[in-house]
Amino acid sequence: MSIHAPDQHPYLRAPRRTLLAMTLPVLVSLIAEPLTGLADTAFVARLGTEHLAALGVGTMVLTSAFWVFSFLGVGTQTELANCLGAQDRHRASMVLTASLVLALGLGILSALLAWAFVEPAARAMGGEGEMLAMAVDYMRHRLIGAPAVLLTLSCFGALRGLQMMRAPLFIAAGLNALNILLDWMLIFGFGPFPALGISGAAIATTISQWFGALWAVLLVHRHIGIARQVRPADLRKLIVIGGDLFVRTAMVLTFLLLATRVATSAGAQSGAAHQAIRQFFFFTALFLDAFAITGQSLIGYFMGRGTTLHARHVAATVCLWSTGTGLLMAAGMLLFQRPIAWLLVPAEASSTFAQAWLIAAALQPVNALSFATDGIHWGTGDFRYLRNSMIISALCGMAVLFMPPAHSGLSALSWIWIATGVWTALRATLGIVRIWPGVGSAPLRPDA
């Protein structure tokens, strides 16, 4: 575990260059992680419509389930960043060990519990007949890799907490390369391997996930060390963080699902246009999340050092660069509106799409601030405040979602994105006031 002297951290000498140098590999790794699903989709699409529909059902259910455990990465990253700043190698090892034990335990338990529920979940997603059978088979093979997914989450959090931003990128790239090779061999059959179809895609993903997990565990053991015992206090702290982030994630999912339901209820055109805008919005979020993750590590480091002034400087820099990125994204969305509409939206939904797209573009700078402040508060360990602010903002957004004004001249889809704007603006506002001026028991207040 490399240690910087208090006045020797690269950020203090070159803030902008250091922030960008740390953010770029995070961004590439975030983009690389979804490529596993894209590789599966590309190969399975050649098997037929039923197979691809089954894959869609399986990946949607599993992605939502694994998202619940994102606290393993977030909590571990903050704790390890604090340890790095405090130069506490022993505590870093203990926290890492607790995180890995919790990840392994939750991975095994969730796989066992989910085994019996994959069929009802697939039915709830619209699966039936042969498609249902294939979706269930796919998910059950993927559940074998559940412990590997959670172990990798913990390890990536630990590595980013130590500001080793390139390591997760290399692991993600290696994992995806192996998955593509195994997809080709197992889906269609090659040499001694039989053609396994969609089951082959699941097995390929599971094998590559275990490969990535073992690589990540060996790497964190080399740089931090895995302890021989687990302290209950470390487990409790991660579980408390998990509880706060579980509620926060549940509110995010609830708002997004309700927005999708309202869009679909307004008609097929509205639903199709909403899907296109939402997917693009999620893609731009990768850029914003990269700044948030970098800010989290830097702020956690300086909080561990006890230098709140430097942590506040990181917060200002992250907000500034995130807002600038949001402005560039807004400009890009406006500039490329027509080609994106041609690519993603059926012609009959283009008029519905245009008005809502402009609203979504205008939200980008505000959305950037909401992501930036999330990363800042992750770095300070202010998870309960993040939970409460998400409850408030999501409930307000839902209230607006279901109260469209009469005779407004806005389409249902445009109103959905106005409600999304209310939700996002409240997130950003509550995040900002916790830093400047620092409402409540704010960790970043100058007198804290």
From TrEMBL:
Give a GO molecular function annotation for the protein.
xenobiotic transmembrane transporter activity
Keyword Ion transport, does the record have it? no
Which Gene Ontology CC terms are recorded?
Answer: membrane
Annotated Pfam families: MatE
Superkingdom classification of source: Bacteria
Q: What is the recorded membrane topology of this protein?
A: Multi-pass membrane protein
Specify whether Kinase is a keyword of the entry. Answer: no
Q: Which InterPro entries match?
A: DinF-like, MATE_fam
Q: Which UniProt keywords apply?
A: Membrane, Transmembrane, Transmembrane helix
Q: Where in the cell is it found?
A: Membrane
Family indicated by similarity: Belongs to the multi antimicrobial extrusion (MATE) (TC 2.A.66.1) family.
Q: What PANTHER family would the database entry show? A: PROTEIN DETOXIFICATION 44, CHLOROPLASTIC, PROTEIN DETOXIFICATION 44, CHLOROPLASTIC-RELATED
This chain belongs to the protein called: MATE family efflux transporter
Instruction: Name the species this protein comes from.
Output: Desulfovibrio psychrotolerans
Lineage start: Bacteria, Pseudomonadati, Thermodesulfobacteriota, Desulfovibrionia, Desulfovibrionales
